[in-house]
Amino acid sequence: MAAERRPARADRPDTEVAIIGAGLSGLGMGIALRRAGWDDFVLLERAGDIGGTWRDNTYPGVGVDVPAQAYQFSFALNPGWSRVFAPGAEVRAYLDVLADRYDLRRHVRFGTEIVERAWDADARLWRLAVAGGGEVTARFVVSAIGPFVDPKPVDIPGADTFTGAVLHSARWDDGCDLAGKRVAVVGTGASAVQLVPKLAARAARLDVYQRTPIWVAPKPDLTIPPALMRLYRRAPRVQDAVRRTATRGVELMLIDAVVHHGRAPYLTRGAARLLRALWYRSQVRDPETRRALTPRYGLGCKRPSVSNTYLRTFNRRHVSLVTDAIERITPDGVRTVDGRERTVDALVLATGFRLASDPENFRRTPVRGRDGFDLATAYTDHRLASYEGVSIPGLPNHFMMFGPYGWVGGTWHQLVETTSAHVVRVLTEARRRGADVVEVRPGPTERWTARMRDRLAGSLWSAPDCAAANSYYFDHHGDTPYLRPTSSAQARRASATFPLDDYAYSIPDDPAVSGDVGRARPERAERTA
Fold first, then answer.
1. What is the CATH number of domain 152-223+229-353?
2. Can the keyword Transmembrane helix be found in this entry's annotation (predicted)?
């Protein structure tokens, strides 16, 4: 099918491809472009260094909650993981190695926070407004901001009146010494599971405020023997086999058990019964505390965690689990609805993040596309939809590393590899056709989204067990657009075989301009489809 030819004025942008974010997603997208021969791209990073979540999260105990062998790119294996579950510092070091190996640092602009994305139909490019002033123009934009954009604002009355130290799990202050202090932790999600045992070892008193308990499973966190590391270095195929096995195991637990719950509901229910009867009972001595820590929703309704120390921490005499709702933060501590105020020296917030699909993200940093399309309005007024979790009609030349129904497999690396392959295919096809504007068509988007919703209709998340989970998997429409309900193998095949004509391609009339399309390679772009 020939690309559409229509009159238009096309300006030369500052860069052919702008990637927003230099975390794991942005780096992975940059690597995919480099490997495909593209060099005219930039990574726009609001912070002063690469790393994303692994740069921002430095709280005590931070690390991956899936096996490290699964938490790496298939084309860049790390034989040096020191433990089954790698600590955060090793993940950060892995990203630094990748940035150097693929020469990505010269593509990064630090201190460049994009506060607005606006499509210029006349110039046929994106105008990206930078915080503090200035603008970056790009032919194509890839949003690589990840699933967790910013910490949720603290909506507890009086939070701004507290006179002690305030720390957030994602904004940790290593200079704040909590030894011998009275500490309150608000939140019991995945970060708190890692953080609470470390704080308990230092604080004089630790109060943990829990709204919804979290499923916590045993963590087989063994040290990797040096001999095994040497084997991985000498025989990468052995490590790749281990990676594939570990990745499939994570996907089986986190994805298959959820999506195919209707076929075998006894799997998750049986696992939950085992955790209650054996693991929780062996970890927590006090029956009342154990009941409070044990979820009443089904296993998998929200992301579970792993730890050998979190549950046991509540056996310590100076650690208290508080399940009464917080009424307000006072200048000296925390007051609960029962009228009791607990005085503390430090407040630790582990209250979670706004998901990438939260419309509030795009009210703060608007994304405005073709013919008045506004992403915040679209997400607010309509059920979320996408094509392959990557593209949305109304946003020409715009791709997302994590769009609606976009989570692939059990680890983020699988998603990044799959999504970046999709984006590179579209960009390469646009260059082949001599097109400078591409946009996914509404029909394929509607059909693909409908298939994803149908597949999720029988998932664990549709079961009554999840009603009390308070899970971020559910959006404000009541949908669960977080997960792509296919296997990672199916997603990889789709990224390599989806019909390229599911996108519309537009060629500018000006021959001088069309010859400049796709400046990522020195050769002229072809003008035929």
1. 3.50.50.60
2. no
